[in-house]
Amino acid sequence: MARLIVVSNRVATPTETKGSAGGLAVGVFGALKDAGGVWFGWSGDVVSETVANAGPTLVQEGAVTFATVGLTKKDYDQYYRGFSNATLWPVFHYRNDLARYERDEYAGYRRVNAWLAHKLIKLIEPDDIIWVHDYHLIPFAEALRGEGVRNRIGFFLHIPFPSPQVLQTIPPHDELVKSLCCYDLLGFQTRNDQQAFHDYVAREAHGVVRELGLKHRQDKQDNHSEHEGEIEAYGRKLRTGVYRIGVFPDEIAEQAARYESRQHVLDLKQSLEGRKLIMSVDRLDYSKGLVERFHAFEQLLEHSPEWRGKVTLVQIAPPTRSDVASYKVIREELEREAGRINGRYSGLDYTPIRYLSQQYDRWKLMSLFRESQIGYVTPLHDGMNLVAKEYVAAQNPDDPGVLVLSIFAGAAAELSGALLVNPHDAAGMSEALERALSMPLAERKARYETNMEALRHNDLGVWRDRFLSDLASVPQPR
Ligand code: ADQ
């Protein structure tokens, strides 16, 4: 079996791959452990030029080498904080209004990708399969190809791919798509994302797109058939596919149940004094629709006074990327709105919105999900949204909560048992909350079972194995 090399902006630490840090890290590490190989990327540290150039630092864990490099302040500012998070992230989430474009940041983005690729070269063996993750690393394969690497290289985009007109707001859009075409396989979260990429290639790059339709696999049990595409553009031929990222639902269910009787859950229960609980958990990001969500909850209290004092929204949202200006703005706005709504509807013993900005342990979160009556997940745009899947998996099968989910989360395509809402429609969201709060047990159970079946059918292992087997089957580039 060929070795695997995983490349991602951040590399999990060996401890994170074992513990509760995140399903994705555990899932990817599982594949690395089986095949043996390397996990390569940024360590998360900002260091001097001398230290950066001395890397990568190698840590061996069984058959897996964790290889990390530090970034200089200039590289961090241009590649990470600049082009990745102040240009690509907002545009790919349809927030052109929040995006900025600076030529020197784009140059830094390409420079760091080339530098990282160069750092990886020494660790690559001829038959290795290379799996690159996410928007920080679009030009990575092109840089490797430039150094003569002929291995199979695949790319998975965790976030949405925007429609061509939106992508075109980034001045070097054509170079980005050309860079993507240096991969052998491109994986997207949803059919819409794949379609948007195909549209760009066909219309703007004058490439040839063959939609191969649903791919039917040998295994009769396997109906994970997804659209497959074949592209010819910029002198290269490559494949595209839809790979919906998942979770390990049974593990989450087990851990959520195990943590159920811990002190933090008992404390929460006691503090609620019999009130219903709505849970929201996100990274603090403008794509997650937090302010719109607060407004819909406010409408519920405004238009359905019988719920005042009877329902609490807990929003957990630790700040991320706080050195990017637009993240400061969303944080201030959210704090202001929580304060305003609480000022309006609080009583001496009741606070409608509990807004918590600290980070919580993963299993703790799952046990809080299990305690709640509603999972309120309403992003304005989201590649998949694993919180939605985790919420479902954490429920008590005998008394499950209801997932209220945005139609703009990738997860909406799979979780048909959720109450789907448009996050721009406050009245519609508030009606969905009310419906979920009053939903009879039989309907909650039926919806939960539908969602759980979808999660089991397409878990994190299926996502990972399908991508890797498709990548292994593309012809080796010459
Ligand atoms: P994110 O934007 O980070 O990921 P999401 O999928 O919701 O979004 O969360 C990823 C993980 O972070 C989940 O395991 C979740 O539990 C955890 N998490 C989120 N908020 C947390 C909090 N406040 N405290 C602790 N843990 C928290 C990107 C894309 C998504 C895509 C994922 C995976 O933006 O659309 O689903 O990658 O592909």
From TrEMBL:
Its EC number is 2.4.1.15. NCBIfam families: trehalose_OtsA. Probably involved in the osmoprotection via the biosynthesis of trehalose. Catalyzes the transfer of glucose from UDP-alpha-D-glucose (UDP-Glc) to D-glucose 6-phosphate (Glc-6-P) to form trehalose-6-phosphate. Acts with retention of the anomeric configuration of the UDP-sugar donor. CDD domains: GT20_TPS. The keyword Transferase applies. Keywords: Glycosyltransferase, Transferase. This is Trehalose-6-phosphate synthase. Homotetramer. InterPro entries: Glyco_trans_20, Trehalose_OtsA. The lineage of its organism: Bacteria, Pseudomonadati, Pseudomonadota, Betaproteobacteria, Burkholderiales. Pfam families: Glyco_transf_20. Pathway: Glycan biosynthesis; trehalose biosynthesis. Belongs to the glycosyltransferase 20 family. It comes from Paraburkholderia eburnea. One of its GO terms (biological process) is trehalose biosynthetic process. It catalyses: D-glucose 6-phosphate + UDP-alpha-D-glucose = alpha,alpha-trehalose 6-phosphate + UDP + H(+). SUPFAM superfamilies: UDP-Glycosyltransferase/glycogen phosphorylase (SSF53756). PANTHER family: BCDNA.GH08860, TREHALOSE-6-PHOSPHATE SYNTHASE.
